[in-house]
Amino acid sequence: MTEIAQIHMLSANLDENYKKIRKCVKDAQKKSVKTLIFPAFSLTGYPIADELKSPEFIKQCWSYVERLLKYTENLAVVLDIPFLEKNQLVHRLLWLENRKIKAFSDNSCGWNDMGLSFERYFKTSKQFQSPKSFKFGLAFASELEKKLEKSSEFEKWIVLDAWSFDYKTINFRINYFCDLAKKYHVEIFLANAVGGQVSLILSGGSMHISSEGKILKQHSYFSESFLSSKTVKVPKSEIEWIYEALVCGIREYFNDRGLKQAVLGLSGGIDSAVVLPLVVEALGRKNVLGILLPSPYSTKHSIVDAIKSADNLGVDYHIIPIEQAFQTMRQTLLPVFGKRPFDLAEENLQARIRGMILMGISNKFGHVLLNTSNKSEIAVGYGTLYGDLCGGLAVLGDLYKFQVYELANFINRKREIIPQNSINKIPSAELRPNQKDSDSLPEYDVLDAVLQLHLDHNFSTSQIIEKGFDAEVVKKILKLIRNSAYKRQQTAPQLRISNSAFNIDRITVF
Amino acid sequence: MTEIAQIHMLSANLDENYKKIRKCVKDAQKKSVKTLIFPAFSLTGYPIADELKSPEFIKQCWSYVERLLKYTENLAVVLDIPFLEKNQLVHRLLWLENRKIKAFSDNSCGWNDMGLSFERYFKTSKQFQSPKSFKFGLAFASELEKKLEKSSEFEKWIVLDAWSFDYKTINFRINYFCDLAKKYHVEIFLANAVGGQVSLILSGGSMHISSEGKILKQHSYFSESFLSSKTVKVPKSEIEWIYEALVCGIREYFNDRGLKQAVLGLSGGIDSAVVLPLVVEALGRKNVLGILLPSPYSTKHSIVDAIKSADNLGVDYHIIPIEQAFQTMRQTLLPVFGKRPFDLAEENLQARIRGMILMGISNKFGHVLLNTSNKSEIAVGYGTLYGDLCGGLAVLGDLYKFQVYELANFINRKREIIPQNSINKIPSAELRPNQKDSDSLPEYDVLDAVLQLHLDHNFSTSQIIEKGFDAEVVKKILKLIRNSAYKRQQTAPQLRISNSAFNIDRITVF
Hints:
17 helices
């Protein structure tokens, strides 16, 4: 019996990861498993970044493999490690069995550590060492197709991956492996890591695919799964995939750090109203604290809607008006500002006072501040640095505004959790009287359409204009993207759910 | 006559870069130059990051080369561009002459875009196309040695680079190229880019080296130089290199953005006292505004020293006490904080009020806020996120505390510019009564020694302990580094002067 241990590993925490691997091995032996497969980077965690530059770390990886070897009596264990070979860092899959390394894959360096190419660490070794007299092919997911093209000697393939979820690729990916199995008439055991690491969400969903391309057995998405055989719940729509991924991303961010509690600002607007049920789902309502921070420019419905969003979920909240602090700050700055008119500086002061209050509560009680900015705002810099852009994790940071609405409707599909008024009202930062987002930005439907063409499809200014969008609007949006790069460098890290996430897939340096 | 146009280019601003190239070409023709060499990435700017993913951008690069070709009557122009070849992005040096591409280098992908491997963009093409019947070898700096090993057909080499300065490598680098010239008995024209791009400081210092390994002609460091023949000022010590690099980094950050004015907080401590003369050197004293932000915990000497540092340089300053704002913030948070004791939350409040005031002035007047944190603090997270970690550029962010002192003494070598008391006093954040940095951190001499071993030399915990450092102290420091990664992700970008700069050379993901 061949099994996959779809475990969640901690980045660079060899000790904890080894304990988990050891436990799975013990359990597998009890249940008479013959071959136990671990997803890519199970020992090291993923991503590991510059730990790979430490020779000591690499040595330690090897020592853990030596320890593990002792427990491979009558059990084959497949996992990967980085190690030094002729002073070069290489990356191989190992097949451990009966206290020996029975087989290993040729060196691979096809990994892309999300923004960091693995070329940063691994050298391509030229020698090709394929396992001999051995019935399994061994490959990392990124190189499987190439290996299948070259070799027809194996009928079964063990494939390791640590795939970072994005909603655009997930279905393609499932079909891709099934198609490969069918095309080359091979059985595939695809072990994929699960969990999260700040921005990255690893999807799990490991599979055993028949040589006819049928999924024989599947592991759960977004949760650990070991020797599992129960039926797996597969999300049915794009927005359900996104929902499940975000909940996983939040949960693992807290789990990995031994943290439990979150705080967030509730403005009555759509963004914070959507973050709240996600956090409640991930952490439980008792671990979430909402803070209402009304200013003189807050409308009455903002407070009503914010309270309703907390009450609908049974979440505790405080109301902390910022007017007094705002007046004191203006007073404090009066000797320098003089009689200059109210402008962006005063708007930002309010956003920063809110940020300061939320961070104060975070520091005092140990709650993690969750950020509620969306990708449309972050793209064009419509947010205040050190104000509404602060926090430990930007839950919606990779969702366009239209996706935030879709998510709201998905969450409300059975009953009103997010106040309908938060969904219906016209978006506003409420930092000056009667402000609307559309005073500063194009309407969100235009903004989102242009952003998608540019960020998701690499369309240039002229190509977008050719699609029929107003030239001035397009130029303005692309200029805003460029000119707000400095803000994105200091914004809370965003949970990545697409293949055009800022700071990972889209790197701008201006 | 062969000449180097050591120009500063703007990242991804093809239009401006082309104009500059065109102007140099025109001037060269007037002065009967035969061959004009541009540093690497002169057309595209460097770094360019994800612009390289836009096919439209790549096409535009090519169209500028076509325009430039028209002006190559009786003049050879050497520069590099990225372009598409069989749908793969490649990167070549071109030799343009008499309206034709007379020669080009084989495809190279040895570039490392500072943290981003160029493998992210460029595919290695397998065909090797060396220029024929042609007396110059063409290479990027990173591949020169390999090419020299392989080929002995050229006596002269044109070498392009866009080398990001670090004080540890600069002298090695100069000797390296001289040694190569001598060893292979070839003449080298090394054209290196100059200027800055946020964190990166490109050093300039282009050279013409004889086949005996002697520097025949040198271009200036840290400033543009075209057809220059005057004597070049070469810094004489590590700290002088660092000083010149930092001034260049500040100056170019402002120049590139069309900005002129800076604001910074003056605490009377060593860090801000060292940043001030650097900024004055880069921008002129009239473009710098100092802000003193005393709190109830500020000592009297802090204010005296801060005023003195401004007066010594003739810089304007304002004094804005933060006590009122601090009391109001505590009052505002009282309903949530209750009677909990004064702790880190209240310390951070003060730092954030200061950040808010400085950003308010930045927003109101358009001054860029300069950050004064040093590498020792940033490494261990001894700073307040959205407080003293905010700003557009962290001037000392890649200098250990001991280097800040060295720089202070260097700046004061002729007269007291930095108040001696700022240099002599015991470092303190002054956020609670009688606070010293050493209450929370090891003494800076121990901290800096451990940080250097770990960050500069990749020493692990046990290796550092073996060197004789206290085990608990070492463990604490390395744990602090790891646990403060989340702060570094949101800290102002740091001017890079070493080869262990955070977020560029040292990437941690926890």
